[in-house]
Design goal:
4 strands, Alpha-Beta Plaits, 99 residues, four-stranded antiparallel beta sheet, alpha+beta
């Protein structure tokens, strides 16, 4: 079962370019260096708001836990924290339907 992470950020306009640079680097390194990371998209709002979202797919919850322990994630998390006004993280996965 794929393990999907959706992260929604609000980033002030003054911090947007720096945040995007940091998050895009983290996304690229995650896909390159983590065998359990299938996909990592950085999405920007089309409605002119300060929303930035991440859509990440991992092989499992353990693969996501591994991601949280990597040096590139820790660096991103530390450097981006002061740039973020709001952050919400949600996890999704497919469950078997009962018959």
């Amino acid at each position: 079962m794929a393990y999907v992470i959706w992260v929604d950020f609000e980033v002030p306009d003054a911090e947007r370019e720096m945040f995007l640079s940091l998050v895009k680097e983290n996304a690229a390194l995650s896909v390159q260096l983590e065998p359990g990371c299938q996909r990592f998209d950085v999405l920007e709002s089309l409605d002119g708001t300060s929303s930035i979202a991440l859509y990440e797919i991992y092989d499992s919850a353990d693969a996501f836990k591994f991601h949280l322990g990597t040096a590139h994630f820790k660096d991103f998390d530390t450097r981006s924290a002061p740039l973020i006004a709001r952050k919400a993280v949600r996890a999704f996965g497919a469950k078997q339907n009962a018959k």
